Fold this sequence. Notes:
- The complex is a heterotrimer of chains A (343), B (345) and C (503).
- Chain B contains 14 helices and no strands.
- Chain B is mainly α.
- In chain B, α4 (80-96) runs parallel beside α6 (130-149), α4 crosses α11 (218-244) and α12 crosses α13.
- The longest helix of chain B has 28 residues, at 303-330.
- In chain C, a hairpin with a 2-residue loop joins β19 (468-473) and β20 (476-482).
Amino acid sequence: MTTLTPTSETLGQRVLHGLGGFAKARETGILLALVVVVVAATARNPGFVFSADGFRDLLLTPSILLLVAVGQAIVIITRNVDLSVGSTVGLTAYLTGRLFIDVPDIPVPLVFLAGILLGGFLGLVNGALVAFAKVPALVITLGTLYAYRGINVLWAGSDRINASDMPKEFLGLGTAQILYIPVLTLIAVFVLVVAGWYLRTQRGGRELYAIGSDPAAAHLYGLKVTQRVLTAFILCGALAGLAGVLFVARYGTVNSQVGSGYELTAVGAAVIGGVAIFGGSGTVWGAAIGAYLLFTINRALPILGVQDFWQRAVVGVLIISAIVLDRVLAVRSTRKLVEARDN
Amino acid sequence: MAEPRTYKDYSRPLWRRVLLTREMAVIAALVLVWIWAYTQVPYFAAPITLTYLLLDIAPILLMALPMTLIIITGEIDLSVASVVGLSSVLLGTLHQGGMPIELAAIIAIVVGALAGALNGFLITVVGLPSLAVTIGSLALYRGLAVGLLGTTAVTDFTAAWKDFAKSKLFGTPIPTIILIFVILAVAFAVLLHFTPFGRGVYAIGLSPEAARFSGVNVERTKFILFVLSGAVAALAGIYFTLRFGSARGDNATGMELGVIAAVLLGGVSIFGGRGGLHGVIAAVILIGALSSALRLASVTSDVINIITGALLIASVVSTSVLAWVRRKRIRPGGRKTGSLAAAKG
Amino acid sequence: MSPTSAPALELSRIGKAFGAVIALTNGTLELHSGSIHALVGENGAGKSTLVKIIAGLYQRDSGDFLLEGESVDFTSTAQSKAAGIAVIYQEPTLFPDLSVTENIFMGRQPTRALGVIDRKAMRDEVVGLFTRLGVSIDPDRPTLGLSIADQQLIEIAKAISLDAKVLVMDEPTAALSGVEVERLFAVARSLRDEGRALLFISHRFDEVFDLCDTVTVMRDGAYIDTSPIAETNVDEIVRRMVGRDVTALFPKEDAVIGEDVLVVRGLNEPGVFHDIDFTVRSGEIVGLAGLVGAGRSEIARAIFGVDSYSSGSVTLNGKAIPKRNPTAAMAAGIALVPEDRRKQGLVLETTIAGNATLAIRNRLARFGLLFRSAENAAAREWASRLEVKAASLDVEAGTLSGGNQQKVVLAKWLATNPSLLIIDEPTRGIDVGTKAEVHRLLSQLAGEGLGILMISSELPEVLGMADRVLVVREGRITADIPRAEATAESVMHAATHDVEATR
């Protein structure tokens, strides 16, 4: 029996540490980019951060998108996608408004629960169709994007719920702070930490990565693929539902178009954050930072002298750059890994 | 073997080959819906309804042509509606700056083709997945469109051109734009079904590796399709702008999903390699007719979204269910007989 | 090894049919602990169906399946795994993005409180496993980029960690180099010594005789015979496999050998092949022999243009062939029947007519337009010439048998009227009858003036068909042996040793 030969092990480990470093470097990289953007914008206009509005917009507003991006990342990791999240946010936001108006004195936690449950249910529909009917998630969620939005519009009509209709304590959540950090941000970060912990340390979380990395192998291993995929979609829907409730807490006004376009921004945030579009790798941390980066760049552009009409173009460039970068690095790392084993 | 072997051309009779297809199901649905609407919905039978229906679906009809081929090769182009917006804005700003519309239109189409070429380059040369790339370019092109015009709109187009966009063919309720569409549809249909290029498209969708080993230039084929998609989207953008007389950065926002939904409803498989234009065209008209009929029947127009979504899901789920049923009947993995009887041999 | 009380695994009179196709009529096997048991048979003999039943992928229609004396009935692979059966396939399925350790433990990771995965315990166990196996793979690296040999070892490590009592290895050496095969065999022997039962399925008799102690032969879905390796020899086994004497299966007739058709000079692709120089003349069949992984298919693909090369030249009938351009190579007259029939040679979901005309689709078009009638006419001509067994031209290629599929691929390429035919593993996975047809065809084509470059891993085929044998070892041509001097020994020697390249 030969013992472990030192050469290939250290080379392999070196390559891996390079890779592991790279993988962590992605999250660090975009965090750095975020810091750079914030610093640059604040240098031009201190009010970017150091003002009531500034601080709120820095930490608070993106946290709604953060929730959606985290949910989307979970689904993308399993090699699926959920294009209906925007419509889910809209539906749960409207539900939130309606509950407060139609059911006087309804306890706030109950409304939170209702929003999360509705979101989870909408995610369940998606997940069931994907897991059982074996139809690609792209198509299913394209259909539910339409269907859910249609239901939303049908239900809401041309109704608009205003901030004045909402109970003060609920709107107060939208502005409350603990140690200068908005409560909503704390909620979002708490969810993020739990999600990150689950994906890293729990069997179920690791199986999500396995399913995205090679679905056929996952079946052969005997993993409960159907169950896991269903769970991923339910979580994504539930997080979108929570985001809808937070939306109302933050903005107070709701119409039938709330959440439009969130799905693509969420996918973009995940991709920028290092989640591979074909699944199997990436973290919710990256997706969260990606969400913050997107939002903050949009705010920073006008301050840095770029008309805010160019925001979407910048987002597009970022997304394309992120996936080009991923591709270049992947090709290089595969080559390194293959060379490492040849030695 | 002394006798040379003979082969039948087809294993099933013509009627089975033609009628028992997804495309026929969609066409049948279209016919049924049309009959229902014609007889039951007030004013649907009026010629002007047909005119407006066709005017409305024209951009989607146009964009669905190259989108069908792209999806058959196993790719997707989510950026088409953004190119519509970009071409609309270009048409508006160039014309406002004094350029004659004809020239501005040509430039818009060229830019659309370039936008498609960028998609094509990233997908075929850099090797990125089309879903991710076109999500990015969807944002980029829309962003450029909005960036160029901001929130303003260009509306000073000559009445002559605006009327042309809405004009009809002599005495019929059919708009002129449909003639342009028909010409393009025939061209794409011939390309897909009656040329070596089209055979290559199907081969790429079913097995890119085998296609490559048979001399099909996979990269060039896909690149050409994305360029065509951009150019046709730009053409749709010109029509859209002239019809409404308004060039705006946010024109046609979200339309890409309507195009893709129609293509998939029309029988094209999202996995690639299957489908044809006849089903897709029928699907676009079907959705348009339903939309029109529901509006006339005073049903809220948002119900159409629910119906489109439900139709899309139902059509793909039904294919999946049919395949599952077929597999279960043969049951390759499972036991053939009821119990483990003593071995027969 | 003396058998213990009950066999570790016993299959008796297993029957299995798929609709009208009967895959197994009498599948029988007796595996004992502490033994490496070979299962041999031609393609279509039923071996892989038997393996899939053992693995739990299929369920048997009839017959008995006993594990250590107890009857079992698996409805899923997870169940067979839980019962202690591990199957290692030719192409292992691992999760490329996840680490080696996670791959081994996916689905059953050790946990601490709150269900948190105990990464240290996992890693320690993997390091222990690898030490035991004498393997040096970094447990933390992603499995992406690992060689097939390493991936197989990871599968074996997984099997041991699951304490598998029965290990099935399905053609494991097809993609391994000589050194890797030795390493695999050392591992297999140590597993046997631990008292596990191994089933080794292979076409390579030298390996069977090297590694195994017992051999079972199957033919046409039925059990034929079992005997200890020491009491039999290759000829006997082949006779039982084929049911008849294997003589004159490779009738290469003499052909007039003419001018140079293909001239390859100095072909180089770092890490794949080096200094490849050879010629193929009209009427000549040049065999390209060597172990799997030597680089022969890569050379062929580079000549045809599917893969690239960094330096060197390829000329056909005097014309230079540009690299990375299959269309140009085809236009000049090169045809390539690839190694992987199902993934590279055919579009399985397309009809016979569609497949047969794919390569000539440009030629069939009139004014740029291509009609079914023209395709059917061309397909009909070639399908009947090659005697493809099918009722109609719109049968999907994926439903044909291996032999008929190969005929369709040949039809496709012969329709291009090539000057040079490169054929990679012409008869792999084909029944004996069609094998002979293919060989006769190749011989006939050579007689008509075609130059043929034939890559084959079956020594008898190479020796029987080739006018000259080029031997490739690790990307270099180590020998150029004319027919008269080509023997199994000389070819195998060149394939496994550094020999001065003969010109």
